[in-house]
Amino acid sequence: MTTLPTISDLPTMQQQAFAWRAEGKRVGFIPTMGALHRGHLSLIEQSVADGNDIHVVSIYVNPTQFGPREDLAAYPRTLETDAALAKDAGANHLFLPSDATMYPDDFQTEVLVRDISKPLCGVSRPHHFPGVALVLTKLFNLVLPHRAYFGVKDFQQCLVVEQLVRDLNLPVEVVRCPTVREDDGLALSSRNSYLTPKERPVASRLRETLLEGRRGLLEHPTANVRDTLSGLRPKLEDVGMRIDYLELRREDTLETLNEFSQPAVLAGAVFLGEARLIDNILLTPGEDPASPPREV
Ligand code: AMP
């Protein structure tokens, strides 16, 4: 029993969306995979703060964005709590599509946002962004939102969605929201539940390392970026993290930066036990290293 009006049927969702549009209601949309935490709730709160009339949260663990050896089966599913949390944060509709209706047996279509999907997470997770682009195209067509809310924790995902919306002229405004963190700096993530009690305090090392990298790059902007990044890697490896990537890239295109000469994202992904953690910091040459990092 959920505590919010809930739609699972796809045609019903789309008809409801058309009805909202006909009534002149502005629809905010927060797509999630559930196991909601304060990060997700902050996106719902932003939709409320933006003055949308309707706040739709979808919970759907989308199989097409998981690779064959990834954690689709293990992904945490906490629907009852999610519904209560979403409602408290201001959501007024839940959308819970099923695999059978989203991807019937005769499903054939792919959605590929080419270049921006390739680096960083795209290297070790080649299925991921094509799956994300596909499911979001479908969800946008079903919910017909005016605005859709995404966390900058998944910075590459923000860029992929923005490119998708531009390229396909989708009538939705993408709103970036800041990363919500634990007190020690660890970015909230549904996958943090994979961390053991021993691993959990170690996990904040990713954020600390990115902050240290930011300081180094801002204080020594002419230093060789590759050297700076190499110098950071032991900080992660020494606490048992296996690095997937640790890179400085252009903030707009994600092209590699050999010198820190323009707005950039310092992005990292590491494996710690069963968990894969990602985080990033945005930084611009000339920024005060003592100031807190820019959030969006
Ligand atoms: P997910 O359920 O992991 O697919 O995430 C759904 C949305 O919540 C995505 O837009 C994420 O970027 C966003 N999100 C996840 N973690 C956080 C966080 N710690 N702070 C802000 N937004 C987040």
Describe the protein in words.
About 35% of the residues lie in helices and about 20% in strands. The strands form 2 sheets. A 6-stranded parallel sheet has the order 1-4-3-2-5-6, sandwiched between helices. The protein has a 3-stranded antiparallel sheet with strand order 7-8-9, with helices on one face. The relative contact order is 0.13. The longest helix has 16 residues, at about 130-145. Strand 5 (about 145-150), helix 7 and strand 6 form a beta-alpha-beta unit. The protein has helices at about 10-20, 40-50, 80-90, 100, 120-125, 130-145, 155-165, 200, 205-220, 225-235, and strands spanning about 5, 25-30, 55-60, 95, 145-150, 175, 240-250, 265-270, 275-285. It binds adenosine monophosphate. Adenosine monophosphate (AMP) binds near residues 40, 42, 153 and 179.
Summarize the structure.
This protein has 296 residues and is an alpha/beta fold. The chain contains 10 helices and 9 strands.
Report the total helices: 10
How much of the sequence is in beta strands? 15-25%
Hetero ligands: adenosine monophosphate
Gyration radius from CA atoms, angstroms: 19 Å
Key words describing this protein structure:
296 residues, three-stranded antiparallel beta sheet, six-stranded parallel beta sheet, 9 strands, alpha/beta, binds adenosine monophosphate
